Amino acid sequence: MAFQKRRPDPTLSARHFYGSEVLRHREERGWSLARLAVEALSSAATLSRVESGDHRVPEGLSEQLDRVFETGGHFMRLLPLARREDHPAKYQEILSLIDQATMVECYSPSVDGLLQTEDYARHVLRAGMPYAVDDEIQNRVRARLGRQLRLQAADCRYWFILDESALRRAVGGREVMARQLQAILDVAQLTNVVVQVLPFEAGAHSEYSSLFLLTMDDGQRVAYEESSRAGVVFDKSRDVVDRQALYDLLRAQALSPQASELLIRSILEGLTSDAPRRPSVICDGTPLAQEQLQQWRWRSLHRG
To answer: Can you tell me where the transmembrane regions are (predicted)?
Structure first.
């Protein structure tokens, strides 16, 4: 089977530089990917992704490349640089911007990566990358969890709007989803984090892909839209203003933070109990009947 090769840009990132070096040494020898796969005890598919800069360098590959190319440790020396980039190059720009932001506003039709538990992230990544090797999935999970330390930074505030469908879709089963919902509730208690839920009752709305709005330390505003396979950064003022207006509409359609917490607790309780009519509880432990929950949600939707 022939694998289509995409040439890396060595100026784009350390991972791309690593891939370009693999490609250069292979082409100097006139080897095909299949030949290098045999010599380096790897697979043509993995090597193709490494060459294009799309794949994290697997364990043991650098040693094999230095052996077959007789490069005296060249690839082992490049490995620490390439390993700093645990996310695909196409996400490097937006991740760097998020790390520099002082305010992150996000709407997501799924649970945002900054809120995901390890098990939930693994199931989501596996669903999105059904043919990836296990090591690649685990590397992506590790990188995603590592970014969550940023939530503890006092110099950045986060505003998450989550679609109700994301909370009700039992990714990984009831136990995995129950832990995920509890994790969202825990993060929502941080003083620099606000979590709202966009309920089913809100009806049609403007966003069916993820929308981010970033405020930088110097006041610059950046918007970012992401689908399941691609993302676009917008830094022109008009584009950002337009997307801020759309986000503000989502915020108005969403439940209040308090009602959102109540709804999440209600869904969590449904996952952990076989009694669907059991009272829900709010954060101070006060029992709240299901009818009261529905009234609270209705008032949040029709407030003002």
So the answer is: none
CATH 1.10.8 fits 89-301, yes or no: no
Domain boundaries, the chain: 14-83, 89-301
Phi, psi dihedrals of residue 63, rounded to the nearest 5° = -60, -40
Q: What is the spatial distance between Cα 62 and Cα 6, in angstroms, rounded to a whole number?
A: 20
Supply the CATH classification number for the domain 14-83. Answer: 1.10.260.40
The DSSP letter of residue 206 is S
Determine the 3-state secondary structure of 287 from DSSP. Answer: strand
* Type of residue numbered 131: Y
Task: Enumerate residues 6+ apart whose C-beta is below 8 A from 167.
Answer: 111, 181, 184, 197, 263, 264, 267
pTM: 0.63
- Confirm whether 14-83 and 89-301 share one CATH topology: no
For β-strands 287-288 and 280-281, DSSP reports them as: antiparallel
Taking only the tens of pLDDT, the chain with its 304 residues reads 343 445 767 776 788 889 999 999 999 999 999 999 999 998 888 888 788 876 668 778 999 999 999 999 999 998 877 766 555 555 666 777 787 789 999 998 889 999 999 999 999 999 988 988 888 888 889 888 888 888 887 789 999 999 999 999 999 999 999 999 999 999 999 999 999 999 999 888 888 888 999 998 888 899 998 876 667 888 888 999 999 999 999 999 999 999 999 999 999 999 988 644 444 443 444 444 455 555 555 554 555 4
Is residue 102 within 8 Å of residue 216, measured between CB atoms? yes
Q: Answer yes or no: are the C-beta atoms of 93 and 231 closer than 8 Å.
A: no
Structure tokens at 270: 């449904």
